[in-house]
Amino acid sequence: MKRGWRILVLVSIAVTLLASEVKALFDYRLEHIFTVMNGILKVERIGPVPEGMLNDLSFTGGGIEGPKMRGKLRPEGWGRLLMRTDGVGILDVHAAIDTDDGALVAVTYYGRLDLGEDGYQKYLQRGLEGFLPGEIPLRMVLHFHTTHPNYLWLNRLQGLGIGLIEPARPVIVYDVYAVR
Fold first, then answer.
1. d(CA 90, CA 76)
2. Domains within the chain, CATH numbers bracketed
3. Is residue 133 a contact partner of residue 142, using CB atoms and an 8 Å limit?
4. What is the dihedral of CA 28, 34, 40, 43, to 10 degrees?
5. How would you classify residue 134: left for phi > 0, otherwise alpha for psi between -120 and 50, otherwise beta?
6. DSSP state of 23
7. Rounded (5°) CA angle 148-78-134
8. Residues 6 or more apart from 137 whose CB is under 8 A from it?
9. Dihedral of CA 153/154/158/163: which sign?
């Protein structure tokens, strides 16, 4: 009988712990590095693939302003957007940044945009232009590569990008953070 009570007490403690607020195990902070403003996005459909619709991405412009970096995106950046049948778009972007102080920084973005459960059908009918401003949130991870001495610290970062695509213009705006 004692064993049954012990099990009941342990189960009760476990349920209480699970029901209480779970705290993060690891401390972290986000440090704003820069914001990309007014990057012009061009989407060109390649065609259907087993996972959904594959698209080529290109972009021009895009000023970079922030506490840690200023400059512009080079126009020869490229990427792919796989628009899955569940309405989630998978981004794979490769770009370069020319900083105002003469550095060249390569950056790779991987991310997702969620167009909703009916997003794939909407996308097939109207492309990204068929979505309202603010309807296309953008979440990305970034990796940087440079040999410029002023920016070697970027090589050690895990970046986080949070922003949106404004399809009517079509403009991309996002903040980039260092995860510390």
1. 20
2. 25-179 (2.40.160.20)
3. no
4. -20
5. left
6. P
7. 105
8. 113, 114, 163, 164
9. positive
Question: The tokens of 139 are what?
Answer: 């979440």
Give the pLDDT score at 15: 59
Hey, what amino acid is at 46? I
- Give which of 128, 125, 140, 122 is closest to 165, Cα–Cα: 128
Convert the pLDDT of each residue in 27-72 to its tens digit. 999 999 999 987 777 889 999 999 999 999 987 778 999 999 999 9
> Whole-angstrom Cα distance, residue 123 to residue 164?
16
Both tokens assigned to 175:
């903040």
Contact 171, 35 (CB under 8 A): no
Per the listing, tokens 């981004």 go with 91
Residue type, 75: P
Q: How far apart are CA 136 and CA 164, in angstroms?
A: 6
β-strand pairing of 171-179 with 159-166: antiparallel
43 strand-pairing partners: 57
Mapped onto helix, strand or coil, the DSSP state of residue 127 is: coil
Residues 6+ apart with CB under 8 A from 53: 45, 47, 82, 83, 120, 123, 124
pTM of the shown model = 0.82
